[in-house]
Amino acid sequence: MNRRISKPVTEEEDARISRTAAADPDARELTDAELDELRPAHEMLPMIFGQDNAEQLMRRRGRPASPVTKELVSVRYDRDVLEAFRAGGEGWQSRMNTALREWAAEHGML
């Protein structure tokens, strides 16, 4: 998975962005009265799109949360052990977890 790390905006870039936004007639600041009228999407979407469509729009994206939680740890393994698991391709971490689980069960640790 490729994740880009964005650079912080410089003061010059921030000033240019602010000037551009201020010059845009469609990007005016909202008044206090307009801000008071704003409502959260979960209140407005059913009125605009209907309850079923609103629920679909508001549904959480991605993989559902697993009931079994994992813990992130930092561990050092011998290079040859890692190479052996990585050679199996995608899912090598899960296979390593399964191997550790089986070993722990065989030795009465689980």
UniProtKB/TrEMBL annotation:
Matching InterPro entries: BrnA_antitoxin (IPR025528)
Region named Disordered: 1-30
Name of one Pfam family that matches: BrnA_antitoxin
Record-given protein name: BrnA antitoxin family protein
Originating organism: Noviherbaspirillum pedocola
The organism's taxonomic lineage, starting at the top: Bacteria, Pseudomonadati, Pseudomonadota, Betaproteobacteria, Burkholderiales
